[in-house]
Amino acid sequence: MGYVDNNLITGERVTYRGRLHWILFLKPVLMSVVLIVVIGVVLYAANVNQWLSSQQMFLAGLIGLCVAALPFLPAIIRYTSAEFSVTNKRVILKIGFIQSDTAEMFLNKIESVGVDQTVVGRMFGYGDIVIRGTGGSLEPFRGVSNPLEFRRQIQEQIGQSFESQGRTPN
């Protein structure tokens, strides 16, 4: 059970769950590839010049692979700890594991939902969601997968909440 499931209020149910996009792993992959290439070149030079024994080479290679995996840790933690949900009453957004950044906004307090996408973001299906609430509050969340669908789900729930109250949205 995640943050969203633990913080639902009476009569509330999740209608849509979003995720961060896989693109957040691109930078760690590039950093790891560079580290592996550098480590490979150093080990090759050590092998050619016979600076290290075969056991030392194996150990150095193993340590090098562990170092190359380090850039993935923050991305994995961010990816697995992020929750984006639309319920029949609220929008709940949470990023972070130890230090959390959360935003919970009732549907009737949302003025607009913006989607900011670069050209690359449109090609790969990710972007930033910006929820503007009454009183001018701005809640941007970056790197959301399929942000247009997330916005559509919010708008659909807002429409349904107006219909259930017998009103029409402005």
Structure characterization notes:
This protein has 170 residues and is of the alpha+beta class. It folds into 2 domains: 12-21 and 83-164, PH-domain like, CATH 2.30.29.30; 26-75. Helix content is 45%, strand content 26%. It is built from 6 helices and 7 strands. The strands form 2 sheets. The chain has a 4-stranded antiparallel β-sheet. Strand 6 and strand 7 (138-145) form a beta hairpin. The longest helix has 23 residues, at 26-48. The radius of gyration is 23 Å and the shape is elongated. The model has no long low-confidence stretch (mean pLDDT 89).
Quickly describe the structure:
This protein has 170 residues and is of the alpha+beta class. The chain has helices spanning 3-6, 26-48, 54-69, 72-81, 119-124, 147-164, and strands at residues 14-18, 83-87, 90-95, 101-106, 110-116, 126-133, 138-145.
Number of helices: 6
CATH architecture of the largest domain: Roll
Order of adjacent strands in the largest pleated sheet: 1-2-3-4
> How would you describe the oligomerization state of the chains in this entry?
single chain
Give unreliable regions as ranges: none
Q: What is the CA-atom radius of gyration, in angstroms?
A: 23 Å
Helix content: 40-55%
* Class by alpha and beta content: alpha+beta
Strand content: 25-35%
How far the N terminus sits from the C terminus, by CA atoms, comes to 36 Å
CATH class category name of the largest domain: Mainly Beta
What is the general shape?
Answer: elongated
Average the pLDDT over all residues and give the rounded result: 89
Q: Secondary-structure element sequence?
A: HEHHHEEEEHEEH
The CATH topology of the largest domain is given as PH-domain like
Q: CATH superfamily of the largest domain, please?
A: Pleckstrin-homology domain (PH domain)/Phosphotyrosine-binding domain (PTB)
Biggest sheet character = 4 strands, antiparallel
Total domain modules? 2
- What is the tally of beta strands? 7
